[in-house]
Amino acid sequence: MGRSPCCSKEGLNRGAWTATEDKILTDYVKIHGEGQWRNLPKRAGLKRCGKSCRLRWLNYLRPDIKRGNITHDEEELIIRLHKLLGNRWSLIAGRLPGRTDNEIKNYWNTYIGKKLQNQQSHSLRNHKPSNQSQNKAKPSIETSFRPPSKANSNSCVIRTKATRCTKVCSHRPEPQLEDSKLSKPRPFSLPEEPESSEHVPKEDNDPSNFLIDLEVDEIFLSEFLNSELSQLQPSHFQNKGDHSDSNTVRCEQGQYSSTHVTTMIQDVDFTAMASLMEFELDWLQDQADPN
DNA sequence: AAGCTAATCAACCGCCCGGTA
DNA sequence: CTACCGGGCGGTTGATTAGCT
């Protein structure tokens, strides 16, 4: 039994949103708030699917959307979060204020993934490892990256052709124009040596300072996943029903869905995790009350 | 200058999940 | 327990744009 479609597609506008549609949607959400997306188009007088309205609002019209290029620090954070969370774009976006999952996903698929691919192929050329060592290689961020299908056919090909990224702007103030269409960010070239970040000054209000708390998260999550979960029964790692793994967190070899983690949390020995929790709680307290 | 190619990213699609009646 | 609804998510598509020849 299939689901009923979210809306009748007949007579609805598709494709790019017009300024008028944007205004109608923005005005409506400002007055009535988010939610009830299915009914929103009818009530607001938009010839759009409710899902489309939600997406437009979340990815483009929300007032807290951060426009402009992804900074070097944000990129680092994305890479590290992706290492932890895999393609959980919404979770990753949750740690990057003002960035949307769609934006991060696109950014990953274009810049970062490509860069990592290039780095990988570069090291492969340099080291030429044996097949055996290749097969036993630990899954990494590089191998977990999957480029868009269009690029699949030649995903192993190293693009030597220059791209159109000619603007070097690793850290610059983003334009804040009224018309978001006019301020549409254009691509920028990634630094050749991402490790050197000395040219990127840190500001106090720089959201990329989230890197700091990521240190805690990463330690905590890694300890949690790697130590406690490894002691659990294999049954814990089975997906419930025949659902796909769309809601799972990939962490090296294991996959854990949020519900499984909940189940596992119920089963683990909490005293064994006390020190980890204390560490996290201390840190949280420090954040809440620095004095 | 024109045509071609590749990159970008907003938008779409389909599936899944949680809540509820 | 089941069906349905609303919403969210990740993967994919395609129009637009920019760079190259």
Report strand order across the widest sheet.
1-2
Nearest-angstrom radius of gyration? 22 Å
- What is the tally of beta strands? 2
Structural class: mainly alpha
How many angstroms separate the termini?
58 Å
CATH H-level superfamily of the largest domain: Homeodomain-like
Instruction: Determine the fraction of residues in helical runs and give it as a percent range.
Output: 40-55%
Number of domains: 3
Shape, principal axes of CA atoms: elongated
**What share of the residues does DSSP label as strand, in percent?**
under 5%
Give the C-level CATH assignment of the largest domain: Mainly Alpha
The number of distinct helices, counting runs of at least 4 residues, comes to: 12
Q: What's the CATH architecture name of the largest domain?
A: Orthogonal Bundle
Q: Might you state the CATH topology name of the largest domain?
A: Arc Repressor Mutant, subunit A
Low-confidence stretches: 1-5, 128-220, 222-284, 286-291
- Average pLDDT figure: 55
Largest sheet: 2 strands, antiparallel
- SSE sequence, one letter per element: HHHHHHHHHHEEHH
Report what the structure shows.
The structure is a single chain. β1 (248-251) and β2 (254-257) form a beta hairpin. Strands 1-2 form a two-stranded antiparallel sheet. The protein has three domains: 19-61; 72-201, Orthogonal Bundle (Arc Repressor Mutant, subunit A); 210-235 and 247-288, no CATH class. It has helices at residues 19-32, 40-44, 50-61, 72-85, 89-94, 101-127, 131-135, 141-144, 149-152, 210-228, 258-267, 270-288, and strands spanning 248-251, 254-257. Residues 1-5, 128-220, 222-284 and 286-291 have low confidence and may be disordered. The protein is 48% helix and 3% strand. α1 (19-32) packs across α3 (50-61). It contains twelve helices and two strands. It has 291 residues and is mainly α. The relative contact order is 0.09. Residues 9-61, 62-112 form the Myb-like domain.
